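Board notes (copied after class):
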Amino acid sequence: MTIQHLKPDPSKVISWAKGTSQELFIYPPASDFQKRDFLFRISLATVEAEASDFTPLPGIQRTLMLLKGEHTLRHRGHHTKRLFPFDQDTFQGEWQTSSQGQATNFNLMCRSGASGTLKYLKGNAGEQIACEIQDAIVLIYVYSGRVSCEAASLQVGECLVIENGNKLKLTYLESSDLILASVSIMV
C-alpha cells in the first residue's frame, strides 16, 4: 500500500473567466490537464458567475459533486439536474453543459481506461470508520474538520491518496465532511 499526504498547492490553481479550478490529483503523475493526457483528474472548481458554460472535454466522463451553493446543470439533449450540497451528477465531457448558480464543486474526470465514483462521508468527533480500498486509487479530501489515520493527520483542504491498499481506519478528530473518490484503472 502506498499513501501520499497532499496539501493545497497554489501553483495548481487555474483561473478562468467565471471562476477557478484547483487540481488536487492527476494520474499518471506526469500528466498535464492542458494537454489532456491524463487518465483521471480530481479537482475543485469555483463558479463565481450566475450562469456559465462548461468547457467541452470530449472523451472524458465527468462526475461533479456540489460542495457549496446551489447549482442547476443543463446538459443539452440529455437531462437537467438541480444540485444541493453533496448531490452529484455524472455526464459526458462532450455534452453541451451549462450551469446556473454560484457554487464550489468537487470534480472527477475519467478517460477511457479509468472509471470512478464519489462518496460523501460525514462524521462526528471521536467516530471511527474503516474505508475499504477495493479500487486501484482512493483519494480522501477533507472539506471541513480534521481527521487522522495511520499515516497522517489531515486538515481542511488536504488529501490522502492511497494506492493498492485494502483497508484504512479513519478517526474524526472533530465533526468533519469528507469526499472519497475511488478510481479503478483497467489495463
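Comment from the instructor: The radius of gyration is 16 Å. The chain has a mean pLDDT of 92.
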